[in-house]
Amino acid sequence: MADDAVCEIVIEHEGWQAIAGLEARCTEAVSAALAMIDKPRRGPAVILFTGDEVLQSLNQRFRGKDRPTNVLSFPAPESEEYPGDIALAFETCQAEANTRAIALVDHAAHLAVHGVLHLNGFDHKEEAEAEQMEAVEIAALARLGIADPYKERI
């Protein structure tokens, strides 16, 4: 991994292994997002591409929710030399992409951006925070030609 890498990608689930261009697309998306924030945390985020079973276990353990979810972010303590970890669940992400009629690689890029923004202090608990976070996501993805993930599709 290069010293200036923005993320380290670990592909654990075989479903993700079949997605052409996954690593490059997500790395480009994360780079685009980090370029848009004032003081991104130093070091590469670790992005784990895994399955629903792992995300369900993590969601139960850390959030008390016994169900899989699409993405989880785990910010590292400020003293660490990296921003933290992100995990994406193949089955949930694939179902969401199918429902929205978008490419799974683009949905994964969006969720990687979403996760890395959480690692850099963004949140969406309050409406104003959500609007700010979504604006960065939309702009970063637009740089890659990925449509606004929050726009209603007809």
Automatic annotation (TrEMBL):
SUPFAM superfamilies: Metalloproteases ('zincins'), catalytic domain
This enzyme's EC code(s): 3.1.-.-
Cofactor note: Binds 1 zinc ion.
First-level EC class: hydrolase
Main location: cytoplasm
The entry's keywords: Cytoplasm, Endonuclease, Hydrolase, Metal-binding, Nuclease, Ribosome biogenesis, rRNA processing, Zinc
InterPro entries attached to this UniProt entry: MetalPrtase_cat_dom_sf_prd, YbeY, YbeY_CS
Gene3D superfamilies: Metalloproteases ('zincins'), catalytic domain (3.40.390.30)
Cellular localisation: Cytoplasm
Cofactor(s) in the UniProt record: Zn(2+)
Residues bound to Zn(2+): 114, 118, 124
A Pfam family that the UniProt record links to this protein: YbeY
Function field: Single strand-specific metallo-endoribonuclease involved in late-stage 70S ribosome quality control and in maturation of the 3' terminus of the 16S rRNA.
NCBIfam families noted in UniProt: rRNA maturation RNase YbeY
Entry's family note: Belongs to the endoribonuclease YbeY family.
Name the record gives this protein: Endoribonuclease YbeY
